Amino acid sequence: MDIVECIDCVNIKSAVAEAIQKTMDVIALLPGVKPYDNLGNLFGAYLGRVAVAFVGAAFLIGPMWLMMLRNTLYTGLIWTTVFVSVFGILSAYWVVDYTSVLSATAAYAAVLVVFVGLTTPS
């Protein structure tokens, strides 16, 4: 009796593992979703995306706070230069393609330059 119960447990475990694998295979077919080996990798990837979201928020909100605390043209230009330079270095570290690094840095610089132009007194 115990041997039969043990065999049933093994069958149930393999059926559950197979169902999880099929679910992960279907999820991997969705656009923008990368396949992962197990749920640990999936959670680690989620934490990585959350960390990138916080860094992105800091890169957008940080300069705005700094430029609003002391609202002069030179302060805006200095902080824009510092943040765009750091952003370019970090994107060059993570992004492989030269065009993508240049495009991302230029887009980020454009956002900050517009903010400087709209907030500095004339």
From TrEMBL:
Sequence intervals crossing the membrane: 46-66, 73-95, 101-120
Pfam families according to UniProt: DUF6594 (PF20237)
UniProt domain DUF6594: residue ranges: 48-113
The protein's name: DUF6594 domain-containing protein
Superkingdom of origin organism: Eukaryota
Annotated InterPro entries: DUF6594
Keywords (A to Z) from UniProt: Membrane, Transmembrane, Transmembrane helix
